[in-house]
Each structure stands twice: as C-alpha cells, then as structure tokens.
TrEMBL record:
<dbReference type="Pfam" id="PF03747">
    <property type="entry name" value="ADP_ribosyl_GH"/>
</dbReference>
<feature type="compositionally biased region" description="Low complexity">
    <location>
        <begin position="79"/>
        <end position="95"/>
    </location>
</feature>
<dbReference type="InterPro" id="IPR036705">
    <property type="entry name" value="Ribosyl_crysJ1_sf"/>
</dbReference>
<dbReference type="InterPro" id="IPR005502">
    <property type="entry name" value="Ribosyl_crysJ1"/>
</dbReference>
<protein>
    <submittedName>
        <fullName>ADP-ribosylglycohydrolase</fullName>
    </submittedName>
</protein>
<dbReference type="InterPro" id="IPR050792">
    <property type="entry name" value="ADP-ribosylglycohydrolase"/>
</dbReference>
<feature type="region of interest" description="Disordered">
    <location>
        <begin position="68"/>
        <end position="97"/>
    </location>
</feature>
Length: 392
C-alpha cells in the first residue's frame, strides 16, 4: 500500500477539499440529463442536440428505453406481482380486499413523496425528470445530509448520526426533488416500514443492484472528512466501510470502499500527481484488475456494476488528472463523462472528487460552481464542512 509521507499545509488541504466537493456535485448534476443513456453519444445528441451536453442542462421528461416503469416501488430491482401490483398496508399486503388499514407504497408515500406517478408502468419517464438545470440527484443530496452530520459531530463521521439523519431526510416530504431512488433505499425503507426492523437492521441486498458504483458516493465524503484530519490509513479505511454499511448490506462494497478510500486520501494529501498515480495503480491491483489504468484508453460507457465501472473510472482519472488547469481538466472530464451515458452520474461525482482535489478550488472554472442549482446553499455547506474537519 502506498502511504502519504508528508503532510501538506492546511491551506493546500482546504483548497483540495473545496475543489473535491464542488467537482463532486458538478459531476453529478452535469450527468443527470444523460443518466442510463445506453445508446451512447448518439442517443445524447437525439435528446440534447448535435453537441450533446455542454453545460448544466435540465433532464428531459421522457426517455426512450427507460426502465423506471419496471422498477419496484416497494423494494429492490424490478417490479413483481407481489410487490408493485398494488399498495401495501402498514399491517400487510393490500391484496386482502377486507383490509381497511392505511395503504402505502414506499415510492410516493414513504420516500420520494409524490413521485410515484412517474414510475407508472405505462409511461417511459426519465429517471431524473423532475430535476431542474444544475440540480443534484438523490445520492448527491444524501451526500449533503452526510456532510451536515459530520459538521454536527465536530468534523467526524458517526454512523448512528448519519443513519438517523438519512431516515429523517428521506421520509420528509419535499426534502429533495429527484424522481428516482435506487434499490438500496427502496429495500431499506421496505424493511423499516413493512418488516418493522430497526434502522440498523434495514440495509439489504438484492444480489444485483447494490454492489454498485453509486455505493461509493457516501464513503467518498466520509473519507474526505477523515483523511483531512487523520494520517492513519487504517482509520480512513474503517470509516469508508462503516459509511457504506449504513445504507447497504454488502461485504463487496465495504471492501471496495476501503480500496477506494486509499485513492481519495492520496488525491487529498499527496504532493504530486505521480504519487497519486502510483496509489491508483496499487488500488487497481487490489481490485484484481487485469490491466493498470491507462491514460490512453477511450472514455467508456459502462453499467453500474463495480467490475465494469471502476476500471473505466480509473482510466478517466489517469487521462484527465495531468490536465490540471481546471477547464481542460476537471470540466472537460465531467462533460465527457456526461456525454458518454450509461451509469455516468455516480461515476461523475467520484471522478470529480479526485480530479477536483488535485486541481484545487482556485483552478476550477467559474461555470462549474455558478451553474449548480443550489449554489448558495452548497457554498455554506462546503465551507462549514471544510472548517469542521480541519479543526481535528
């Protein structure tokens, strides 16, 4: 394992934290309009014009080939006759015609309030149809929730505090504006509401849609906080795994979060890019990849599964990190990611975190920051986060 040998100055770490966080949110928002466009750039052009995505853009309402209409509103993966054919009562399935108890669905009633009509099996709706230009998806909104709990806990990650905030946030109507919620969240709240499990027992796994790249979103934030305050790699890795376990039951993801934490830490604390590249190569080996990351590889569309998405992510880091003057580095990398399609939203966030840390906030283009929908709130939250974690 490559370890950091010198501690950068406080001002450098602060600049890298700000660069990482702004680029994290930018990567998510830029890619939201083209999330799960498996027709590649040609499909992007059909919906957004010949140049594709060139800046923050509002997602389309309809999406050809969307499987939102097949997704289970009461649990993980795709719908089944037992879970999505109707509503459930708080005391069991609503298939009992004599059941007069309150009937609910997870999507629409428990979380993502009012969004169930967009999941209609007769429609073909974009996964983020309700978002505005530059607005972040649910996973990035949850990253903001995590940041606030870290601030409230004196700059440290606390699994119990985040779990409580997560449950409250998602059950609060109007807390976010996204259409989609991933399998892990639907399963968590199904366990909480229908199975009446305690929150710490609610993380679950459908064996298909949980061991995925979106599971690295929240650990990235926890790692930034912990690495900024600690030179102990084991502590950073432990926090990464603990954070992943708050919303998902996945030993695979916990191990991937540990590996990923090493690269995020290097991006924040290493003096030069060569050391970051070495750490990235070490991480690639830890994941068992057959080839090291290549700066010459084409930007690749992938699905969400870690075995596909992580190698392509590392190739993009290798390609764009040397172009570290902001516009031709971070911004172009995130635009390229947006125009690839596939599972690009969550890759965009964590790609942005690493590239933004290396670029630092001062080298980010103005439009990356100014175009975000919640720019003013993000500015306060990022500054609060930076100050809180740097006190430790």
């Amino acid at each position: 394992m490559t370890t950091t040998t010198a501690t950068p100055s406080r001002s450098v770490v602060e600049a890298r934290l700000r660069g990482a966080l702004w680029s994290f949110f930018s990567g998510d928002a830029l890619a939201a309009p083209t999330h799960w466009y498996y027709g590649g750039f040609q499909q992007v052009q059909m919906d957004y014009g010949p140049n594709g995505i060139t800046t923050y853009t509002k997602p389309k309402m309809e999406l050809r080939g969307s499987i939102l209409n097949k997704s289970d509103v009461n649990g993980g993966g795709r719908s089944s006759s037992s879970s999505s054919s109707g509503k459930w009562s708080l005391f069991g399935s609503s298939s009992d015609k004599n059941n007069k108890k309150e009937q609910i669905t997870i999507i629409g009633d428990v979380i993502n309030h009012g969004k169930k009509p967009y999941w209609d099996k007769h429609k073909s709706i974009h996964y983020h149809a309700t978002l505005q230009r530059g607005e972040n998806t649910l996973e990035a909104q949850l990253a903001r929730v995590l940041m606030k709990t870290i601030v409230q806990n004196d700059g440290r990650f606390n699994a119990d505090a985040f779990r409580d905030a997560y449950v409250t946030f998602l059950q609060t109507p109007g807390s976010h504006n996204d259409t989609y919620a991933s399998t892990c969240h639907r399963m968590f709240f199904s366990n909480l509401v229908f199975s009446k499990l305690p929150p710490e027992k609610c993380p679950d796994n459908d064996g298909h849609n949980v061991d995925t790249i979106d599971g690295l979103i929240l650990p990235t934030i926890a790692v930034l906080a912990t690495a900024a305050a600690s030179q102990q790699p084991d502590r950073v890795e432990t926090v990464a795994a603990q954070c992943a376990a708050v919303t998902r039951q996945s030993a695979v993801l916990e191990q991937s979060s540990r590996i990923w934490s090493r690269l995020v830490t290097a991006s924040l604390l290493e003096e030069d890019d060569a050391a970051v590249v070495q750490q990235m190569n070490d991480c690639s080996q830890s994941w068992g990849h057959r080839r090291p990351p290549s700066a010459n590889a084409p930007d690749q569309m992938t699905a969400c599964y870690l075995s596909q998405s992580v190698p392509a992510l590392l190739n993009m880091i290798a390609k764009y990190m040397p172009k570290n003057d902001g516009r031709t580095g971070v911004w172009n990398a995130l635009l390229s990611n947006a125009n690839i399609g596939g599972e690009n939203v969550h890759r965009g966030s964590i790609l942005g975190a690493v590239l933004g840390a290396r670029a630092t906030y001062d080298n980010l283009p103005t439009e990356l920051v100014q175009g975000l929908h919640d720019k003013e709130q993000l500015e306060r939250e990022i500054e609060d986060f930076v100050q809180a974690v740097m006190k430790n």
